[in-house]
Amino acid sequence: MPIDPEFLEILACPLCREPLTSREREGKEELRCTGCGRIYPVEDGIPILLPSAGSLEETRE
């Protein structure tokens, strides 16, 4: 179940406070920070916004 867009509007990265965007990757929803690029998992429709749960997105060159 995707995150409600209105709910997503009030969420922010716990580290840099920038907005988050929702996306699906490998069949799972995740939230990506538009500022620092950290990725946060979404489990059963609940965003896990703990700094320790986030990971940096790998860049491919």
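The record above closes out task 2.4. Task 2.5 opens with a second protein, given below.
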Amino acid sequence: MHGRQTVYDNSLPEKRLFSRASVECELSVNPVNMSMIPATVINISASGIYCVSSRSIGELSRVNIVLRINGGEEIPARSVVIREEELADGSYGVGLFFTRIAEEGRRIIIEYTSDIESTG
């Protein structure tokens, strides 16, 4: 009996619930039991953010965040760190998943990512 070889098809399009857009805006991250950490958002969707921080936060850490898109209103949210990786320059790439965000805040993010997607 010959061994079976599994082939994975990575050519399928990514299936995300919400559009994700590349941006660069400021973010304040306030981990529970830690001081506030400034971070820069790299991309955003209505379900979460990928940002770069100068400090490690720790996977599965719960954080409160405040996001400001294009100098607009502050969008507060609660998030959990779902991914963290040390980058070549010593900073940290952090994936945050929103666990609580007001519908108005989510709507603003959806409109913003849709605008970026439609204008390229």
